[in-house]
Amino acid sequence: MQNALHQKYSQIIKAKATDLGFDACGISKADFLEEEAPRLEAWLNQNYHGKMSYMANHFDKRLDPRKLVDGAKSVITVILNYFPEQQLPTNDDNYKLSKYAYGTDYHFVLKDKLKDLMAYISEEIGEVNGRIFVDSAPVMDKVWAKKSGIGWVGKHTNLITREIGSFFFIGEIICDLVLQPDGAIKDYCGTCTRCVDACPTDAITEPYVVDGSKCISYFTIELKEAISEDVKGKFENWIFGCDICQDVCPWNRFSKPHSTPEFTQNTDLQQFTKNDWEEITEEIFQEIFKRSAVKRTKLEGLRRNIAFVKN
Predict the structure, then answer these.
(1) Last residue of a domain, one of 120, 147, 175
(2) The pLDDT of residue 279
(3) 238 and 129: one domain?
(4) How far apart are CA 44 and CA 37, in angstroms?
(5) Does residue 175 have a known ligand-binding role?
């Protein structure tokens, strides 16, 4: 009887997630991530987090969702596609921006949708103790998405689905509601090593292991100081983020344009030339990237990246 109820609740939640525009929704039991503990420890011990000191904080909370939400029983994971209908020019004559940063910052968009899902759960099922997470706390997004059967973690350490590839955002609700968990699916990377071979800074040190401190996204977004001369000439014109390992992944031939209006790029960006980027003013930066993830670097950081790539 209880199992039938848990199954019913899970179906209700997944149906609502689809209504809200999420591309997939999966459920896991909120347990200690036993397999991940030694992996995370080894990764941190090798300093693969670079200057991202926050990655070493709250080790126990990263591995146990019950330390984030009292009495947590389930992790509800959702994904939201951001693959654009029209990509910015990616030829060698222009600077490149990661596709995830084309539109409104995903933190706002996902949080709003998850708040709607949370409100719906309370209305339909009853008062639930839960929290919404969108990169806002030490939650291992990709691991939970993998455990809930949404996809598998590829050799570039991004989550991949067979239906839409890997260009999507991940968010969670961790709550005290007992739900019917989904099972993980198999890894479909096979013998392919395209992502490993394509990384210009050799950040993928071996399949399924990324040295974050060598990643172009790390240098152009997370690093606040001067970029090391060791990687000079290796950025292939990326000035905010990098999509190389995803662009070469065969599974992304199944990517389809998103249907989230907020992720549509600013039309001015489409016309941006190399010269426009090099001469960008504070006023234009604030106007074009008003609610964009690009604001994380601030104009000063963007100019540093452009100068590093340019010379």
Answers:
(1) 175
(2) 95
(3) no
(4) 11
(5) no
Tell me the average pLDDT across 254-275.
Answer: 91
Q: Using CA atoms, how far apart are residues 253 and 248, in angstroms rounded to an integer?
A: 9
Residue 62, annotated ligand binder? yes
CA distance 196 to 122: 44
Tens of pLDDT along 143-198? Answer: 999 999 999 999 999 999 999 999 999 999 999 999 999 999 999 999 999 999 99
Q: Are residues 147 and 17 in the same domain?
A: yes
Q: Is residue 181 part of a domain?
A: no
CB 36 within 8 A of CB 63: yes
pLDDT at 91 over 80: no
Backbone angles phi, psi at 172, to 5 degrees: -140, 155
Residues with catalytic annotation? 135
- Rounded distance, CA 77 to CA 53, Å? 26
Q: Is residue 184 part of a domain?
A: no
199 assigned binding-site residue: yes
Domain assignment of residue 33, given as a range? 2-88+99-175
Domain count, the chain: 2
Q: Would you say 292 is a known binding-site residue?
A: no
Instruction: Answer yes or no: is 93 within a domain.
Output: no
pLDDT exceeds cutoff 90 at 265:
no
